[in-house]
Design a protein that fits this description.
The protein has two domains: 165 residues, Dihydrofolate Reductase, subunit A (3-Layer(aba) Sandwich); 123 residues, 2-Layer Sandwich (HIT family, subunit A). It is 23% helix and 26% strand. The protein is α/β, with parallel strands linked by helices and 310 residues long. Strands 5-4-3-6-1-7-10-9 form an eight-stranded mixed beta sheet, sandwiched between helices. It has a five-stranded antiparallel beta sheet with strand order 11-12-13-15-14, covered by helices on one side. The structure holds NADP nicotinamide-adenine-dinucleotide phosphate and zinc ion.
Length: 310
């Protein structure tokens, strides 16, 4: 399932006003129809209620998000949870590309999951808008296609068509995922320094007590171990990688070797390992540089692996 956004915004990112579009641009509506036709569309209840004639979009599965479990819309399927709505959309005709079509609330929440954004930027500045399109972080996205359209007789504005694709690049740390204010502030400082905290020239690395390293990995005790653990280690690759898919077979062998060393020196009847791979706003990671957590819980415990966003 590819998750795509389709949106139009003014130069000041305005998208909506008093439950409606702040413009009339049929040329952009045509583009919207062409892009979404034959694909499921996912939207918030306010956007559904703003559709022309109060009717669902034809020839597309209409999927609506509402927190009200009893809401029913003719011609649409209602979900109370974003993940459920997207998974259902993937099962519908054309579900290989799911179109998230707004509004502001849904775009803001679904942005970390989106892989593509079809965006129209209109030559407009809407001063009194109440709904805005979220910022697109240039670190994570690349505009791959661009074309201008001049306004036709019916259009209030001309504009530019863009398609953004996620490049896979992400900041070296994600302060939003810090567990507390102190940690968030520390992550902000690292972000400003521009130096990955796990890379060899990183400043933080020197402060850390490295227990051992081999050809591909180094291991240390977690500075902030999870509660109720006998041991909590962090095992980090020597080179900067952000995805499990980038681990080479030689590195897998070295990871096995590192595990064997831990088990020999910290004998236990079992352990749990977890890793976050990819977009930190999706995985909840604070440091983008890949790292495994290896823990040995102490006693009968309720081990929490940290919170997920959203
Ligand atoms: N320019 C564009 O491309 C574009 C596209 C779409 C919409 N718009 C405009 O944007 C405005 C509407 O946007 P909006 O941000 O106000 O509303 P919206 O995102 O369309 O809908 C918000 C509603 O969605 C439901 N919702 C939000 N988060 C949810 C979650 N996590 N789980 C379940 N339900 C959730 C809630 O419904 P309940 O209140 O029912 O619980 C909430 O009130 C309108 O002015 C519209 O014309 C513009
Ligand atoms: Zn790094």
């Amino acid at each position: 399932m590819l998750i795509s956004f389709v949106a139009a915004m003014a130069k000041n990112r305005a998208m909506g006003k008093k439950g409606d579009l702040p413009w009339n641009v049929p040329t952009d509506m045509n583009r919207f129809r062409t892009i979404t036709r034959g694909h499921p569309v996912v939207m918030g209840s306010k956007t559904f209620e703003s559709l022309p004639g109060g009717k669902p979009l034809p020839n597309r599965a209409n999927i609506v998000l509402s927190r009200h479990t009893d809401k029913k819309y003719e011609g649409a399927t209602v979900f109370t949870e974003l993940g459920q709505a997207l998974r259902f959309a993937a099962t519908q005709p054309g579900g290989e590309e799911v179109m998230v079509i707004g509004g502001g609330q849904i775009f803001a929440q679904a942005l970390p999951l989106a892989q593509r954004v079809y965006l129209t930027i209109l030559d407009a500045d809407i001063a009194d808008a109440d709904t805005f399109f979220p910022e697109i972080d240039e670190m994570r996205w690349a505009a791959t296609e661009e074309g201008r359209f001049e306004m036709s007789d019916q259009d209030e504005y001309g504009g530019t068509f863009l398609t953004y694709n996620r490049t896979g690049h992400s900041p070296i740390v994600e302060p939003a995922n810090g567990r507390n204010e102190e940690y968030k502030a520390q992550l902000e400082r690292i972000l400003e320094s521009g130096i990955c905290p796990f890379c060899q020239n990183g400043e933080t690395l020197k402060e850390q007590l490295i227990l051992r390293s081999n050809q591909s990995w180094w291991i240390k005790e977690n500075a902030h171990p999870l509660a109720h653990t006998l041991y909590h280690f962090v095992i980090t690759p020597n080179r900067h990688i952000e995805s499990v898919d980038d681990i080479t077979s030689a590195e897998w062998e070295d990871l096995k070797e590192m595990r064997a060393w831990v088990k020999q020196n910290y004998p236990a009847n079992g352990d749990a390992m977890y890793v976050r791979s990819g977009e930190p706003l999706v995985t909840g990671a604070t440091v983008t540089h890949l790292h495994y957590h290896m823990i040995v819980p102490a006693g009968l415990v309720d081990v929490k692996f940290g919170s997920f966003n959203g």
